[in-house]
Amino acid sequence: MVVDDEALVAWDLAYQLEDYGVAIEGPYHCLNSALEASASAIPDAAVLDINLQGTQVWPLAEHLYQNGCPILFISADADRERIRNDFPKARLLDKPVSPEQLAPFVQSL
């Protein structure tokens, strides 16, 4: 699952992940559409921007994390302490994200 409110960034991430052989769900550009999609099926992994048009991704992240979904947060202004405390197994990359940075996350799946 790819969730980012910036369409170009979201599609770029999706294409990078597809290059690694990952089947993509989304990309989703707002919290509600991603929550709706995850209500019917938990994805194998999620790449989440934290700030979605002024709305924080935390409700989706909590839902996915509680259901065992590996999470990679991507953000230019991440709340690192919250991620460490609430999502200790999640990873974090600063934007912009390069294919080389995505590789370790994909390989860990």
UniProtKB/TrEMBL annotation:
A GO biological-process term: phosphorelay signal transduction system
Residues with 4-aspartylphosphate modification: D49
SUPFAM superfamilies from the UniProt entry: CheY-like
Cross-referenced InterPro entries: CheY-like_superfamily (IPR011006), Sig_transdc_resp-reg_receiver (IPR001789)
Keyword 4Fe-4S: no
Listed Gene3D superfamilies: 3.40.50.2300
Keywords associated with the record: Phosphoprotein
Stretches assigned to the Response regulatory domain: 1-109
Residues annotated as signal peptide: none
Name of the protein: Response regulator, putative
Organism field: Altererythrobacter epoxidivorans
Organism taxonomic ancestry: Bacteria, Pseudomonadati, Pseudomonadota, Alphaproteobacteria, Sphingomonadales
